[in-house]
Every structure is written in C-alpha cells, then in structure tokens.
Specification:
Elements: H1 3-17, H2 22-31, H3 41-50, H4 56-87, E1 90-97, E2 101-107, E3 112-117, H5 120-126, H6 136-149, E4 159-165, H7 169-189, E5 195-201, H8 205-214, H9 218-230, H10 237-240, H11 245-261, E6 273-275, H12 286-297, E7 305-314, E8 317-326, E9 329-336, E10 342-349, E11 355-356, H13 365-376, E12 384-393, E13 396-405, E14 408-415, E15 421-427
Parallel strand pairs: 4-5
Antiparallel strand pairs: 1-2, 1-4, 2-3, 5-6, 7-8, 8-9, 9-10, 10-11, 12-13, 13-14, 14-15
C-alpha cells in the first residue's frame, strides 16, 4: 500500500469516526500554546542507534509520519468513544400500561438501555426477558406478547396505554406513532379488537412526583390527570388511581364524546390519541342500562328523545349515566355497570327547574338557592362560584347548594320536597 493510499484511508476513517469539532480542537490548541513536550534522551538515542546507517535528513522526516499516524489513531479512538457514549445516552422513556406497568429507557438509536417493572404484576410479564440492547419496537412486541399470554389483555379488558417521554417532541411523536402501529398489528395478529391510548410527554418533575406518590407510571399519572381535568375536577386523583387502563379509557372516551358534542373537544385531553373501542364486555352494556331506566320510567325507546348513555365512575363503582326526554320532562338515571342495579334517578321539567322524583314534589332550584342564602345571611350578589345541583340520594331528591362569600365556603343539602336543610357546612 502506498503512502497516498494509507493517507486516503486514514482520512476516510477520520471523516466517518470523529465528530466535527474543528473549532473545539483549535481552541484547545490555542490554550496550550507555548507548552513544550520534552523528548527523553533515551528515546532519541534509541532512534539514533537503530538508524545509524541512515542519513540524518531521512531520520528527521520519518518523525512527522509517526506523529500523524499516532494522532489519527487517537482521534479515531476518541471518535469511537464519543459515539459509543452518544449511542448509550438516554433519549426517551417509554411506558406500557395495562395494569402491569413497564418502563423502557431508550437511547437515541432506539435501543433499550433498561427495562423496569413498575409494579408486582409487571415482574411476571418481564420474567425471563433480557431486553437490554434490543430495538425498542422488538421489546414492545415481546412485552405485548407476554401481556396476551398472561391474560392481562383480552376481550374483557383490551386497552393499552403507550406513553413516550422525550424533550424532543418531534422525535417522541415519531416513536409514539411507530409503537402504536406495532401494538395495533400485534393485537390484530392475536385476533383481538384492541384499544390503544397513546400520548407524548416532556419530562416533568411535577408529573414524576405525582407518579411516585401514588405508585404509578408517569404515563398513567398523566391519563388520570386528563380525566380529572375533563370532569371539571369533580373527580379526584385518589378516586381514579386504582382503576385499570381499560376503565380509564372508557371514562376518558365518554368525556371526549361529551366535549365534542358540546363544542369543547380537547378539554383536558393533552396529547392523548385514542384508537379502537375500550371493551365493555365485563359490564351489562349501554343497551341494557337504557332498558333498565326506560322500564323504571314506564316508557319505551320509541316514546323518548335524546336517549343517551355514558360510562362513568362514581362512589367507588362503575356506572352508566342514562338520560332521555319525554313530554317536557328530563329523566336522569345512574345504573350500576356491573350488576344493572338502579342507583339513583330523578326527573325534571325542562326549563324551570321544577320536577319530581319517585312521585315527590319539588321546590325547584331557585327556592333551594334562596333557602341556603337566607340561612347564610348573604345575598346572591355577594357570592362567588354559586352552584346548585339536583341529586337523588337514599330514596330522596335533594339539592346541593355551594357558594363562597367574604372568604367563607358554604355547602348546603336541602330536601327537594320540603325545603328542609338536611345538612350544611361552613368553612372559613
């Protein structure tokens, strides 16, 4: 090999292996300007003794070649270390949640740096797997296969939450999309009509603290917070943290549907994208819930208008909220989603707040508000956040009246039939 061929190969290796850091190299050279590197006499003597039969000029010209070669070797080695470090640096965190929650820490080259079981169920899913160094897509497919094999994803609970945390949102979105497509294909291959929720997040200390506090993944914490926000904070994080991803998917989907109907689509939804339908096979179904409500009202589906039923969670159980209208009256029911039991109901004349429940008379929302304000000794103009809510509880129609005035919060429960104050709380 000629000297020119050697130089060309070294130049090619340098171009491919070393980072483009010319300005950095020059600045470091400038910083060391004037530094003398002393060569030992022993080295010079050794060089002289081995080349006594060569002219002095040739001996001097051989040194630059050795120095250049050594420098190139060091640069190439440095480049390999640099790129090795870049390849193993954390870029994204991927969470796969069903009830088992698994976290994959991923490099820029989309290789798995580590796989962590976030709860006891996930330990079983990862048992026997060594995912370190594998492509993240391959790892995700292996995990989904294990979830299917162990029965965590089936016809009764078919939802999977995929979360990608990455400060580079464009990179995170691309990875989320790829993993969603792979998960969909894996579920279809298992002949399962799956449902996938997918979201992209930036790293957040607040979200991490929330997840750590409740012992869930950051992805599940973000989904729960979206549901809380979508409920206008009528639900709490504590209420929902024990639910599975399939149950949260049912509630989230119902909220999204209501938001779209009311023109508020996207409220509290963040970056969550939903595909497929969450399974309701473990419950009685919307049709059965509607039939229970209509039977209690003594009506048929053909007689009513605006017949709707939505999945929800209240008082520690899954429910269907059924609503319909008939002859100027609005009917609202809560049906236990698991047993079909009638939990609550009330009917209200459209437009005036009056109505009946179980045959009882109703003082109306305006009267209930007036009773509460008179008891508190304040006028309506002095209040903030005044709310009046009708509810049917313990076989009785009630009004819940809440408001704030002069730094004090008031809450009243008033019998809808008699106007009696059943309970009140004043918090200063």
């Amino acid at each position: 090999m000629t000297d020119r061929e050697l130089e060309n190969r070294l130049r090619t290796a340098l171009d491919h292996a070393a980072p483009n850091d010319l300005s950095g190299v020059l600045s470091r050279c400038k910083a060391r300007k004037g530094t003398v590197i002393h060569m030992t006499n022993a080295m010079e003597n050794h060089h002289f003794n081995n080349h006594t039969n060569q002219p002095a000029g040739k001996k001097r010209r051989s040194r630059p070649k050795l120095v250049v070669a050594a420098c190139l070797a060091l640069v190439i080695a440095g480049g390999a270390v640099y790129f090795g470090q870049q390849g193993s640096a954390l870029a994204s965190v991927v969470c796969l949640d069903v009830n088992p929650s698994i976290e994959l820490r991923v490099s820029e080259k989309e290789k798995v740096l580590s796989a962590t079981a976030m709860n006891d169920d996930a330990v079983e899913i990862l048992d026997g797997m060594d995912l370190d160094g594998t492509d993240v897509g391959v790892a995700a497919n292996a995990i989904i296969g294990s979830l299917l094999q162990h029965g965590y994803v089936d016809e009764l609970a078919n939802s999977i939450l995929i979360t990608v945390e990455d400060d580079d949102l464009q990179r995170g979105e691309a990875l989320k999309q790829a993993l969603t497509e792979q998960a969909s294909a894996a579920l279809a291959g298992a002949q399962l009509n799956g449902a996938i929720l997918a979201q992209t997040l930036q790293f957040s200390d607040e979200l991490s603290r929330k997840a750590e506090e409740y012992g869930v993944s950051a992805g599940k914490a973000a989904l729960i917070q979206a549901v809380v926000t979508g409920s206008s904070n009528t639900k709490t994080f504590e209420d929902l943290v024990g639910l599975s991803i399939n149950e949260l998917n049912l509630i989230y989907t119902a909220q999204t549907s209501v938001a779209q109907t009311s023109g508020e689509a996207g409220t509290g939804s963040g970056t969550i994208v939903s595909s497929g339908n969450a399974s309701q096979s473990a419950y009685i179904g919307q049709q059965a819930a509607q039939e229970t409500a209509l039977k209690h009202a003594g009506l048929t589906a053909a007689q009513v208008t605006f017949l709707e039923s939505e999945y929800d969670y209240d008082d520690g159980r899954m429910i269907y909220e059924v609503e319909f209208h008939y002859s100027g009256t609005e009917y609202d029911y809560e049906i236990d989603a698991l047993t079909g039991e009638l939990i609550k109901y009330h009917k209200e004349a459209n437009g005036n707040g009056g109505g009946t429940s179980g045959g009882s008379t109703d003082i109306g929302s305006d009267k209930a508000k007036s009773i509460a304000l008179n008891h508190a000794g304040v006028s309506g103009s002095q209040t903030r956040k005044l709310e009046v809510k009708r509810d049917f509880d313990d076989g009785r129609l009630e009004y819940e009246v809440k408001f704030q005035a002069a730094g004090t919060e008031y809450e009243y429960t008033i019998d809808a039939a008699t106007g009696t104050i059943l309970d009140y709380d004043i918090d200063r």
